[in-house]
Specification:
By secondary structure, this protein is mostly helical. It contains three helices and no strands.
């Protein structure tokens, strides 16, 4: 399932790049706006063209596949809780208990380390 989603994602990526590159840019009209052109800088748009509809559809598909792939990656890295009663659900691992640790008495003489012979 993830492999199929990855293939769709890559194909949509390439299609989105292609469809954006073949469209005429608004920057071409920007230079004409100062030259007295009848079009305004961000002038009124007519009906959406086929390319703009394809761009919108492919962008939505790209975002959805990105979201699903990231959710699949999170599911893969975060451990799933086991059912109650399974060995993995017995609680956190703890170090074996070795009895209480006692501090030395306050006024006990401190023995200096013995020199090595």
């Amino acid at each position: 399932m993830i492999t199929l989603l990855m293939i769709i994602h890559i194909l949509v990526c390439f299609f989105l790049i292609f469809i954006v590159l073949i469209q005429s840019s608004k920057g071409a009209e920007l230079g004409a706006a100062f030259g007295g052109s009848s079009q305004t800088l961000f002038g009124s748009r007519g009906a959406a063209t086929l390319f703009s509809k394809l761009t919108t559809i492919s962008a939505v598909v790209f975002m959805l596949t990105s979201l699903f792939l990231s959710m699949a990656d999170i599911k893969k890295t975060v451990p799933i809780e086991q059912k109650a009663g399974s060995p993995a659900q017995q609680g956190p691992l703890q170090a074996p208990q070795q009895g209480p640790v006692q501090a030395p008495p306050q006024n006990a003489p401190v023995q200096p380390p013995q020199p090595v012979k």
